[in-house]
Design a protein that fits this description.
Structural class: alpha+beta
Number of helices: 16
Number of strands: 17
Helix content: 25-40%
Shape: globular
Distance between the termini: 24 Å
Bound molecules: D-malate, zinc ion
Largest sheet: 7 strands, antiparallel
Strand order of the largest sheet: 14-11-13-12-16-17-15
């Protein structure tokens, strides 16, 4: 193995002095995730500018036997993009090339470090849109989003990140560049390496460019914030809203989360009356969907109260009650953060059982729930339980498994959930994943300790 100083010198020769960070102050922003739950000291941070430099960096690290942690916008929530200690942190932030929109194919090729917000602006300027959206849009990068198969608020309509992915360019642990960016609609030529990388969490290869499907830009939108008695009523409303062809999002939060968000973002109560649960519905189309959304609400007995906005400012105002949850929780403390999903028929029972399940292992902790209603995807955030983080995770994830759910709906496994992977995947599946991992990264240098 090469010494630290020797490897840093090789890396400087590849990316230039200014882009190898060894000083602890310069490394610090890359070494801790933004929830402050995961942190570790990297050997150095290296910031290549293109695929060739990424390949050279990986070749140098492989020759030195030094593990590598790839990182995009550092918005991940399971510790998959921060070092455990001693790795080279490979930041993709300088890979920012964004090709012109291919209007005939309705696709675009973007380098890994392009932020979601920039991609959205680029697509919209060409009359298209991108099918994935999430609150961290200003910092989250497309490479990280593919690597984690990010979900977000539009999965209901367009699917997760893998559903947008038509091609990828990536670098294997030994520096081999694997590129398949044709984006062909039909391409039955063997193993789908592109899709294998979606959700691989940086353990199989480092994504450097991705080819992404675009969707039509829908200019007319209407958002409803609806107060309902509880989870069953929220599901009844979802059932009614599903009949709308224009339905684009269906999100859920509860009274406790609303209190926290209102305090943090200084928002007025949305209704005179308080409700047990709240649903955000968004409809989008070429023509104004407001009337059909209003009709659906009027016909649904589960609706306690509702407010609807069609203009951009009004829509953002209603979305803020939902989208500010992550930041409000983060401002209140370091949460134990879990991201689960269950079949919709199990959702109400899970929501009912969670607070007491948490209380048994972390008395007095505050459980805040919100999520993506359509997918039965609940973000379980527990405040005041840092000391009992493992016991809380264990209790919640076992409960989720009892309800036939997944221990990770959209955030991935990362470092956070490795011990619980067998709750969602069989021993045979995990063994097959390990075989794939050792075929592509035999020395185990890419993101060790993540996922497997
Ligand atoms: C969300 O939907 O709010 C995101 O997944 C972020 C989070 O869970 O904190
Ligand atoms: Zn989410």
């Amino acid at each position: 193995m090469t010494g630290g100083a020797e490897l840093a010198a090789v890396l400087r020769g590849i990316v230039g002095d200014a882009h190898v960070l060894v000083d602890p102050d310069l490394r610090a922003p890359y070494e801790t995730d933004w929830t402050r739950r995961f942190t570790g000291a990297a050997r150095c941070v290296v910031r290549p500018a293109g695929t060739g430099e990424v390949a050279a960096v990986l070749r140098a690290c492989a020759a030195a036997g030094v593990p590598v942690v790839p990182q995009g916008g550092n918005t991940g929530l399971v510790g998959g993009g921060v070092p455990a200690g001693g790795e080279v942190l490979l930041s993709l932030a300088r890979l920012t090339a964004l090709d012109p929109v291919d209007a005939v194919e309705a696709q675009v090729t973007a380098a890994a470090g392009v932020t979601l917000e920039r991609l959205q602006e680029h697509a919209r300027a060409a009359g298209f849109d991108f099918g994935v959206d999430l609150a961290a849009r200003s910092a989250a990068t497309v490479g990280g989003m593919v690597a984690t198969n990010a979900g977000g608020i539009r999965v209901l309509r367009y699917g997760s990140m893998r559903a947008q992915l038509t091609g990828a360019e990536a670098v294997l642990a030994d520096g081999t560049v694997v590129s398949h960016l044709t984006g062909l609609a039909k391409d039955n030529t063997g193993y789908d390496l592109t899709q294998l990388l979606a959700g691989s969490e940086g353990t199989l290869a480092v994504l450097t460019r991705v080819r992404l499907r675009l969707v039509p830009l829908l200019p007319a939108r209407a958002v409803a914030l609806v107060g309902v008695a509880g989870t069953d009523e929220a599901l009844a409303l979802l059932g009614a809203a599903r009949r709308l062809e224009t339905l684009a999002a269906a999100e859920l939060f509860f009274a406790g989360g609303l209190e926290l968000v209102r305090g943090y973002a200084k928002l007025q109560p949305p209704f005179r009356e308080a409700f047990g649960a709240y649903v955000v519905l968004e409809c989008a189309g070429q023509a104004d969907p407001t009337d059909e959304l209003l009709e659906a609400l009027a016909d649904c007995a589960a609706v306690g109260d509702a407010t609807v906005a069609s203009d951009a400012a009004g829509r953002s105002r209603l979305w803020a009650y939902r989208e500010a949850h992550t930041e409000a929780v983060n401002a209140a403390g370091v949460p134990v953060k879990l991201d689960v999903c269950v079949p919709l028929r199990e959702l109400a029972a899970l929501v009912a059982a969670l607070p007491s399940t948490v209380d048994k292992v972390a008395a007095g902790a505050q459980t805040v729930l919100w999520g993506h209603l359509n997918e039965g995807n609940l973000h379980v955030n527990v405040l005041g339980a840092q000391q009992q983080a493992e016991a809380v995770s264990d209790a919640v994830l076992r409960l989720v498994a009892e309800h036939r759910g997944s221990i990770s709906s959209e955030h991935g496994v990362g470092r956070a959930k490795v011990p619980w992977l067998p709750l969602s995947r069989s021993a045979e599946e995990i063994a097959a994943m390990r075989r794939i991992k050792s075929a592509l990264d035999p020395a185990g240098l890419l993101n060790p300790g993540v996922l497997l």
